[in-house]
Amino acid sequence: MDISQALFKTFTDMNIISSITSTLFIILLGFFLRKKNIFSDQFGKMMTKIVLSVSLPALAFNSFMAPIDDQTLKHGLAVLIFGILIYIILIFVSKLFYLGYDHDRQTVLSVLTTFGSTTFFGMPIVAAIYGPKGTMYASIFNIGYRIFLYSYAYIVMSGLKMTKKNIRQMFLNPVVLATFLGLILWIIQPYMPTLTGLNPETHKAVTVAFYRIDVTAPWLFKPLTYLASLSSPLAWLAIGSTLGEISFKSAAKNKTSWYYTAIKTIVVPAINLALLFVLTVTKILPVSQVAMATILIMMATPTAAVAASYAIGFDREAVLTSNASFISTIGAVIMVPIWIVIISLIGSAGIF
C-alpha cells in the first residue's frame, strides 16, 4: 500500500475521525462553558475526582472482562515489560534535553517529561478509539507508570525518603486496584469454575469463568459500562474547563514551556515508536498495532497532575510547572490527533 492509499484509508476511517473530533469538540465545549462562567472554578476538580475514583476504575476493570488467548497475553506481557523499561530509560534520557538549565530546573523538567497524564488524559482517548483491548493494554502499561510516579518522582521532587502515605497512595488508588483485580481475574480465568451464558455480542451460548460478569451477570456489568462510558466526555470537559481558567497570554511568554511541550508531545512518543519498532522487528519484545498505538497515545499526553502537584507542593519551579502544564495540554490536544493519524498510516503500511 503506497502513502496516498494509506492517507485515504486513514482519513476515510470514521472511527478515527469521529474519535479525534469528539475529543477536540468536547474539550472546546468545556473551555467555552468555563469562559462563560457556566462551569464554576471547581468544575474541573470535581469532574477529575469523579473520573479518577469512579469512571476510570470501571473502565479499567471492564476491559479485562474478555476472553484470554495466547496472542493477547503475549502482547499484554510485552506491554507490561516495556512499560517498566521505558520509564527507567526516560528517567535518564530526559535529563539530556535540559543540560543547559540549572540543576533544580533540570530535575523538575526531567520529571515532568517522564510522567504524563496517562490515566486522566490518555486512557479516555485510547478507550474511545481502540475499545476494551486498547483500555486493557493502557491499564497494564500504567502499572510501571504508577510504580515510578509514586516512588522515584516523589523522592526526587521532595528530597525525602519514601513515605507510608505515598506507598498507600500507590497501591490503594482506585484505578490501580481495579487494574490489578481485573488483570489477575483475566489471567487465571482458564483455571476457574465455569458457567454458561449468552455472549452479548454474538447472542450465542458460551462457557466462561464464573466471574466473567459480561456474560454471567449482565445486570452488574451494564452499570459498570455506563460508568466507564462517562470517563471520556467528563475528562474532556474537565480538561477544557481547566484550560479556560488560565491566561494563555501569560503562559505563552515562557519559552521553556514551549520547548518542554515539544519534547513531551513529539520527541518522547517518537523515542517510544523507535524502540517499539526495533523490539518488534527483532522479535525481542513484539507488540501488536493496538498495543503500539496505546503506548504512543499514552506517552504523548501532557504533564501528569501528580507530578505537577509534587513540583508545586514542594516549591520546585511552581510557576514554570503551571505554565508547562497549561502549554503541554494545548500541545497534546494538537499532537495526539496527529499521532493517531501517524499510527494509522503505520498500520496501513503493515509495519506492526
Automatic annotation (TrEMBL):
It holds the Pfam family Mem_trans. The chain crosses the membrane at residues 16-34, 46-65, 77-101, 108-130, 136-158, 170-188, 224-246, 258-279, 291-314, 326-351. Its main location: membrane. One of its GO terms (cellular component) is membrane. It comes from the Bacteria. One of its GO terms (biological process) is transmembrane transport. The keyword Membrane applies. It is found in: Membrane. It is a multi-pass membrane protein. Keywords: Cell membrane, Membrane, Transmembrane, Transmembrane helix, Transport. The keyword Coiled coil does not apply. This is Malate permease. It comes from Bombilactobacillus mellifer.
